């Protein structure tokens, strides 16, 4: 149970840092979307790190790599909004 809480905390912090590093009008807003952004970044960083052999099978991404992963996920989010694949939450 504490592992899930830790992932949520790391994801939320990584999501906040990624939103500060990549400001823009198309950023997902709110606590839940920021947390999901960070968690998705942490999973992306863990997957890539394990695929290239940087992390072992039971290891996960830390704050820095989770933040880098969250910035990548945020970039993909911004490109999807720009291509109008997903709606822009700021222009309703």
Automatic annotation (TrEMBL):
Coiled-coil regions, chain positions: none
Primary localization class, coarse: membrane
Membrane topology label: Multi-pass membrane protein
Keywords tagged on the record: Cell membrane, Membrane, Transmembrane, Transmembrane helix
Matching Pfam families: Transgly_assoc
Compartments it resides in: Cell membrane
Gene Ontology CC terms: plasma membrane
Superkingdom: Bacteria
Chain segments annotated as transmembrane: 6-22, 31-53, 59-77
InterPro entries referenced in this protein's UniProt entry, alphabetically: Transgly_assoc
Recorded family membership: Belongs to the UPF0410 family.
PANTHER family for the chain: BSL8023 PROTEIN (PTHR33884:SF7), UPF0410 PROTEIN YMGE (PTHR33884)
Protein name: Membrane protein YeaQ/YmgE (Transglycosylase-associated protein family)
Organism whose genome encodes this protein: Bradyrhizobium macuxiense
